[in-house]
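In this supplementary section we document a worked example of the pipeline. Step one takes a protein sequence of length 70 as its only input; no multiple sequence alignment statistics are reported here. Step two produces a three-dimensional model, which step three serialises into structure tokens for compact storage. The input and output of this example are shown verbatim.
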Amino acid sequence: MVSAVRVCADTGVCVGSGQCALRVPEVFDQREEDGVVVVLDEHPPPSLREAVHQAVLGCPSGALRLEDAD
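The serialised model returned by step three reads:
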């Protein structure tokens, strides 16, 4: 069984590159005024977990992380 995860973003660290929103637009977006990440779905479905994991790893500023939601 896949454990539940929670997506967290540190908006103070985000540089607005948009890589996360490009990779997983179902989970990430950007604020129009400054491009900072917005988490649309803190608890993504299992079908998106690998893509979200890759987005977290690919974040150039390290603003994204996954936490165990259990």
